[in-house]
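Shape matters. As here.
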Amino acid sequence: MPVEPQSPAPVRIAPNEIAVHEQAWLALEQALRRLVGHLCVAARGQSAELDDQLGRVAAVLRRRAPAPDIEALLGGLHRAISALDDPDATLRPCAGPSSAFGQAAAFLTRLLDRLALETRAGPRVDELKAMLAEATSDVAVAEAIERMAELVNEQLQALQRDRGEVERTLAHVNSQLDEVAAYLFGEDSDREASRQSGQRLEGEVGEELARLGESVRAAQELEALRRDVVARTTAILHHVGEFRSRETERLSEYRQRAKRMRTRIGELERETKALQDSLRREQRLSTTDALTGIPNRLAWDQRIAHEYARWKRFSRTMCLVAWDIDRFKAINDTYGHAAGDKLLYVVAQHLAKHIREVDFVARYGGEEFAMLLLGTGPEDALRVCNTLRERIARLNFHYRQKPIPVTVSCGIAVFQGDDTPETVFERADEAMYRAKRQGRNQCMMG
């Protein structure tokens, strides 16, 4: 009989071995994504076309897109790289920094936008930004870094001085509280002394009355009894008078001490109010952007954390909007930083004044703003943002009697599922850049 071929034994892999392989592949994928991200940064500045493609790749990597989305970008990236080696190709010059020191200047400018500096440091920050914008060598960047370090050190020293002032104020408040504690302790002592004085009077009067009773019972003659009654009554009146004298003196001391304490409490209340006002003022300054007058990045981080916690608890619809002024660098280069600063102020104030009181907008950095629309779905958010965008396009902005066209682009993302503030902002940011790539002056959903 012919022997039938036997099928190969199935390969069995333990579940724990599969998990180990999965973890190894995930680690490898993360390392490759980081590597590609670093290579994107290193390759910037060769041409505008290549920078556009690298920006798209970086955006896809940030939102952890699947492999098909990354592969879809390979064709455009390959063409942009091939154009670098084509002698007949006409390359658009790169508008961004084309050297290491230029990239460092751009990074330091973004870092200045994110630092929560005091309002009075605004002019020096603007001066540093202007220096970085005009930097043409690593020496200029190094000088800007040195000045930036000096500014940060001054801010730290100012914070230490403020901290010392608060500590001195609190020490004074503590001394006032010690006086209050001493006063209350004195009140307890006075009550105890008054109680003992009352007991003493009670004992003395009781003793005199007892002796008077004995005299009445033992008296043989009326005259002797009368003399004894008068003597005991006089003794009782003397004890009562001493008691009143002690209580009057104690009451006088109590009134003087209470008057001093009312004065101390008044001083303490005034100092406490002044400290509270100072702390509120410092808190307001630390969370307000010095240039635009709206909340800054620190205020945004605090608010988004608060609203995210509320969203996780109540699942109320919430949208995040990323705004960016179109061609802002060109406006700065053409009309100067003073025009750019004025434009930032006008746009920021416009955004802040035309949203509801429950909504929130902050300067996120540079010419970019972040907004929260609470209780607003994606369709309503798109309608609101388009209205804001159209209003800004009609601002009729002038600088030194010269009209400057102003438009903004925005991206909108709605919180959903397992979102975090970072993932939602990445979607909104990518949608905003997509709006810019497709012509600017428009809003897109992310």
In short: Residues 7-13 have pLDDT under 50 and may be disordered. Strands lie at 318-325, 360-365, 368-374, 398-399, 402-403, 408-414, 443-445. The CA atoms of residues 413 and 424 lie 6 Å apart.
